[in-house]
Amino acid sequence: MGLFNRLFGWGNDTRSDSKNNRGPEPDVVIDEPLDADFVHGQFQGERITFSSVSSPNGNWRCLYGRTAANVGTPVVLLNENEEVQHAFAVTRAQDVSIANDGHVAVTDIGDPDDQNLSGTFDVVAPDGTSVIEHEFDANIWECSITENGRFAATATHNPDRSVYIFDVESGEFATKFETPNLNAPTQEFGTIEGEVVLYLLDGDERYRAIDLDGNTVWKSRDLEEQDRIDQLLDSSEQADLEEAIDLLEEAYELSDDQSRKKSIANKLADTHWRLSKNIRKEEGDTDAWWSHLNQAKQYYYETVSWYDGKKGVAKVERKQAKYHLKEGDEEAALQLLQSISELEDEYDVQLLTDADKEKIENLS
After folding, report:
1. Measured CA distances, 260 to 300, 305, 311 (Å)
2. Structure-model confidence comparison of residues 41 and 156, the more confident one
3. Measured between alpha carbons, how far is 146 from 129 in angstroms, rounded to an integer?
4. Strand ranges inside the chain, DSSP E
5. 120: exposed, middle or buried (C-beta count within 10 Å: 0-12, 13-18, 19+)?
6. pLDDT band for position 15 (50/70/90)?
């Protein structure tokens, strides 16, 4: 059912040119007090619990149902005299934002039994006119509207993962901004140097600001660091091995996310391993070769909970054991091979080769 068919008119607005289908004045009865987080009342004879949100200037209050009703979720706009201005119903309201001029933005997340990815973003003018009704092929959650009611926004979940800004005056879509690292982020409008921007939040913190054309105009410190890490990782793919190690080490030090830090550690381990092989091929068993082997093992141990980490430790210690055998240090070689065996037992994964097992048996 479209929003136009769910708008209810009343009061003194009886203009014949209204594009909404007007019905009889709804039976809206709101209990006291109105300043509570949850407000109770009746809507068309049904008992409803409402959430309450006010405009920034306090001149408007919007109540939206948090309990089910036959008509759907009622959304009721109250003016500064706490009189009902108008009301409409959506299937299931998740979030409501109200401007200083009385424009109301609503995210309608649809029937809870509907498993399809969908959601409808509605903006209704203070006279009850529907100015935006946009249906998405993705779930939506939060919304925001500028204080003057000129622009409104919402954001989608997977697989779309984008923020949408609408021009309320024209009723048209204005900007789409993809958010691959944020899933339906909370948004809030603000200004930077007098220009309207939309802040995207990660949790409770502002993460990024975009302008009305979808350009990033501000980044949080965390995002700045994340972008720097991405740049370092991209550069490391094109650099020679020694330069790649420097770039990866900087990315490793910058990263606070433990999962990503482990991923970078794994790249560092692989790069040290490859560099050690090149050094041995060109220069033989030098101190530099041994140093890069040890650094590779150190970083592989940081990812030892991953199979690649365990496999990496095993191949380094196998290489080191082979060197000690060549040098006649059987005890050191045995200790390294037994270390692989212990890792294998600890994680219940096959790491020893048949040759490793034979060497352990001969050296024990």
Report:
1. 14, 14, 19
2. 156
3. 18
4. 7-8, 28-30, 38-43, 46-54, 61-65, 73-78, 84-90, 93-98, 104-108, 119-124, 130-136, 140-145, 151-156, 162-167, 172-178, 187-192, 195-202, 205-211, 216-219
5. buried
6. very low
CA distance 248 to 121: 43
CA atoms within 13 A on the CB side of 74: 30
Q: What is the pLDDT of residues 188-237, one digit of tens each?
A: 999 999 999 999 999 999 999 999 999 999 999 999 999 999 999 999 99
CB 123 within 8 A of CB 166: yes
Distances from the Cα of 90 to the Cαs of 11, 47, 67, 108, 141, in angstroms?
21, 17, 12, 6, 14
In angstroms, how far is CA 44 from the centroid of its own chain?
39
Selection from 249, 225, 226, 224 nearest residue 239 by Cα: 249
Q: What are the DSSP calls for 249-278, one per residue?
A: HHHHHH---HHHHHHHHHHHHHHHHHHHHH
Question: What pLDDT does 68 receive?
Answer: 67
CB-count exposure of residue 157 (10 Å: 0-12, 13-18, 19+): middle
Q: Tokens for 280, please give them.
A: 């041995």
Q: What one-character DSSP code corresponds to residue 31? A: P
Can you give the pLDDT at residue 14? Answer: 31
Report the alpha-carbon distance of residue 184 to residue 284 in Å, rounded.
Answer: 55
- Tokens 């068309």 appear where? 44
CB 189 within 8 A of CB 151: yes
- Span 124-157, pLDDT tens digits: 999 999 999 999 999 999 999 999 999 999 999 9
- Sequence-ordered list of residues with C-beta below 8 angstroms from that of 174, at least 6 positions apart, any chain: 151, 165, 166, 167, 212
What's the pTM value of the predicted model, to 2 decimals?
0.76
C-alpha 272/C-alpha 348 separation (Å) is 27
DSSP 3-state assignment of 149?
coil
pLDDT value at position 27? 66
